[in-house]
Amino acid sequence: MRRPDRYRRQTVLPEIGPDGQRSISESTAVVVGLGALGSISADVLARAGVGRLRLVDRDVVELVNLQRQSLYSEEDLERPKAEAAADRLRKVNSDIEVEPLAKDVHAGTVHDILRGVDIILDGTDNLETRFLLNESAIDAHLPFVYAGAISTYGMLLAIRSPDTACFRCFNPKPLPPGSLPTCETAGIFNAVSAQIGAIQAGEALRLLVGNAPSGDLLVIDGWRPGIERIRIARSADCPACVGGQRDYVGARRTQVLASLCGSDTISLDPVHRGTIDLDGLASRLRGLGTARRAGDVLVADVEGRRLTVFPDGRALIRGVKDESEARSVYAKYVGI
Ligand SMILES: [Zn+2]
After folding, report:
1. CATH number of 286's domain
2. Which of 195, 208, 279, 294 has the fewest beta carbons closer than 10 A?
């Protein structure tokens, strides 16, 4: 018996049609950041049948994420988000390829993360990564769907340089760290992140079936729903898309340390990598506290700090006040 066409209710749309569905099925999309926006957009793309979906996130699932990050449930707590998201989406659509990458996005990894993709969806929580993705998208001539949500507001711009403004065109001078509120300090209304994520996936599908980006920044008030469209012109003196500066792609990488969304967690990514013997490490750490495996990672509670160690040596260190303390904790308990 012939299998029913699972995409029938979207191929019947004149905006998509059989040709559009073929384009969607032959596409590869990367969702960078699998928080509130990435959860929704990845889910929509998987259900729409995007042929290959690369899911990237450096973080693990925490209880406070479940308020809005719809790919996860309580049983996923402390699992890497990329893996939990991939497991979920493979159950949703087994006809597509899903590739989880539990990686930090920085100048040293961005090239591999974007290799072979047709479109980039921004689910990140920080400007630095957006600037990096923006520069990479310009270099690779890839569309980049920027999106962000905080408090009860959200924003979105589908970028395809040089047809549209790039992300740096309307953010010419990056603010120093700590200048902007985070979802930790300002909060986030889950209905607005869901709206933005759905619109982001819709913009991605529109581009994948051959439409041009509108060039409009969409600003959404999620509390009193309404969308404002603001025309964003290319900046004649944009450092990135006009000036060719590569401040982020070209950043010299020593050791990436980032504070995660206003929390007391530091992500530490050692320069020298290798596969860590997590079981051996767990048995060493049990003498100092508790240590257990959670999927592919090791979770250890040691002297008031929680360490989540990934097999490639990257670690999330919770309960530290600054980067140098994180470096010291890493060196003390994991070794570098
Ligand atoms: Zn620009």
Report:
1. 3.30.310.10
2. 279
